[in-house]
Amino acid sequence: MCVRQRMGVLGPVGTHSEAAALYLMEWQKLDCEIVCFGDIGECLHAVETGVVDAAFVPVENSLEGAIAVTLDALARSDTLRVRREVIWPVHNYLMARRTDGEIHVIYSHAQPIAQCGEFLLRHCPRAEIIKTASTARAAEIVGASPVEAGAAAICTRRAGELNGLTEIAGRIEDRGSNCTRFFEVVREGALAPPTEMPDTVLLVCQIDGSHAGALYDVLGEFAHRAVNLTRIESRPARTELGAYMFFFDLDAHSDADAVRDSINAVAQKSVWLKVLGVFPVHTAHNE
After folding, report:
1. Fewest beta carbons within 10 Å, which of 13, 22, 227, 242?
2. Is there a contact between 54 and 5 (Cβ–Cβ < 8 Å)?
3. What is the pTM of this model?
4. For residue 105, what is the DSSP state?
5. Segment 210-261, tens digit of pLDDT
6. 59: left (phi > 0), else alpha (psi -120 to 50), else beta?
7. φ and ψ of 138, to 5 deg
8. Residue 190, C-beta contacts closer than 8 angstroms, at least 6 positions apart
């Protein structure tokens, strides 16, 4: 008997995470049960403990930057690995129970609120902004609010419709290029690697910053071998003040021997180093 795989996402139903996960499942023809969690940390912990087979979580938004909880969980875990990346175009909608009343309060997740800052200043300057755990949770709150409260949500169209809301304004993000990178995260060795050719090698390491030029020396190992870096991100190592770990996205289309040799050289200059995944990157096309 074939057991259906379970994929964790940030819930409840109607989030951008769920929408992107549904796209992934259709694109890859995956037969998965989606399991919603209250936050990203819970979602990734469920992968570690075997509650779900995979998680599909955001790692970076083009307007607001890195999602710290995702990076920190990958860095501290000995078992979590990235299997695939999907770049998801993000479209935000202002939705309410009615469209002809004044908006007094707007609910949404912190990321969409920041992504729609210019719109809010122009069109809803007097509205109170309240942050919620997710865009879908915002839609739930507004759906349960009395009409006279003048409540609205910044959410996905699906979340609004599920909660009986009507669209006031669509695609209200400040930049049309707004997108979020999502990682499909699995336990090491738990699922077969993807069949597509890899585009990215993701590694994280902690560098001894007590001497001048430590980061320069590490970057030189890539530069000398013509290994292209497509992204660098630093995070506190949480061991002592001033200690940092660095995430490097390497172009997997670089010479394979050069990539391997540069990683080995960087490992020699690091306190510790982990390769978090060698995986394909796909840009989605949604509404």
Report:
1. 242
2. yes
3. 0.85
4. E
5. 778 888 999 999 999 999 999 999 998 877 776 789 999 999 999 999 999 9
6. alpha
7. -60, -45
8. 53
Residues 92 and 165: beta-carbon distance below 8 Å: no
Give the Cα separation of 245 and 271 in Å (integer): 9
Sequence-ordered strand ranges (E) for the chain:
5-10, 32-37, 54-61, 65-66, 80-89, 93-96, 105-108, 128-131, 151-155, 166-170, 179-187, 200-207, 229-236, 244-251, 270-279, 281-283
Strand partners of residue 131: 108
Q: Which amino acid is at 251?
A: D
Amino acid at 171: R
DSSP 193: P
* Antiparallel, parallel or unpaired: β 5-10 and 32-37: parallel
DSSP 122-168: HH-TTSEEEE-S-HHHHHHHHHHS-GGG-EEEEE-HHHHHHTT-EEE
Residue 74 has pLDDT above 80, yes or no: yes
What phi and psi values does residue 266 have, to the nearest 5 degrees? Answer: -65, -35
Backbone phi, psi, residue 250, to 5°: -100, 140
Q: Strands of 151-155's sheet, edge to edge?
A: 128-131, 105-108, 151-155, 93-96, 166-170
Q: What is the dihedral of CA 84, 16, 44, 72, to 10 degrees?
A: 80
What's the farthest any 2 CA atoms get from each other in the chain?
65
